[in-house]
Design goal:
By secondary structure, the protein is of the alpha+beta class. It contains three helices and 15 strands. The protein has one domain (2-128, 155-191): Jelly Rolls (Sandwich). Helix content is 15%, strand content 39%. The chain binds 2-oxoglutaric acid and fe (ii) ion. This is Alpha-ketoglutarate-dependent dioxygenase AlkB. Keywords: Dioxygenase, DNA damage, DNA repair, Iron, Magnesium, Metal-binding, Oxidoreductase.
């Protein structure tokens, strides 16, 4: 079922069971096994620190993506990713030429506050985010006014979150640590690199 999140200066839609549990469990194991996962390092306070998650970047030829000082050179599309891309494109009414995959091995893995506002995404990017495996909390905070309350949603197995319009200009998001959780989660964010 599709719902719209009610947040100012944002256009966000959510489908709780976009993929069935059977499909989702298949994709979870298949992607964990076949994706070329890597652990990037970022420079922080003069030190090199490993990112607290594994990532991979699949995209059309020439579509590189740079964030946090890391340049992602695209890998050619894996066949298993193509039906996912098509299903998400049909729901979003938008075509994508790339996907960033994040592998949260357990609750210690996380992603800090950020907006998806890199220049290669252009103005008002459409970003379609699919989750498989362990349910994790996804938080939003308003960038310019601390009085606007934070919002959170639970991204469960098989869900689809679509962020578009001015969302990235006005809101940041994060996936906080959840240290008690032991099960893996995969997230795929489909993007259009200009
Ligand atoms: O894991 C998630 O749900 C969020 C991923 C994300 O924000 C990103 O890849 O930019
Ligand atoms: Fe993001």
């Amino acid at each position: 079922m599709k719902t719209q999140l009610c947040m100012p200066n944002a256009k966000i839609y959510f489908w709780s069971q976009f993929f069935s549990p059977v499909q989702s469990n298949y994709y979870l194991t298949e992607l964990i096994d076949t994706v070329a996962w890597q652990q990037d390092k970022i420079k922080m306070f003069g030190k090199e620190l490993p990112l607290p998650r594994l990532t991979a970047w699949y995209a059309d030829p020439g579509k590189s993506y740079r964030y946090s000082g890391i340049t992602n050179i695209p890998l050619p599309w894996l066949p298993v990713l193509l039906p996912l891309k098509e299903a998400v494109e049909a729901a979003a009414g938008h075509t994508f030429n790339s996907v960033l995959l994040n592998y949260y091995r357990q609750g210690q893995d996380s992603m800090g506050w950020h907006s998806d506002d890199e220049p290669e995404l252009g103005q008002n990017p459409v970003i379609a985010s699919v989750s498989f495996g362990q349910t994790r909390r996804f938080d939003f905070r308003y960038r310019h006014d601390k009085n606007i309350p934070k919002q959170s949603i639970w991204l469960e197995n098989g869900s689809l979150l679509l962020m578009q319009g001015p969302t990235q200009h006005y809101w940041q998001h994060q996936v906080p640590k959840a240290t008690k959780l032991t099960q893996p989660r995969l997230n795929l964010t489909f993007r259009e690199i200009k």
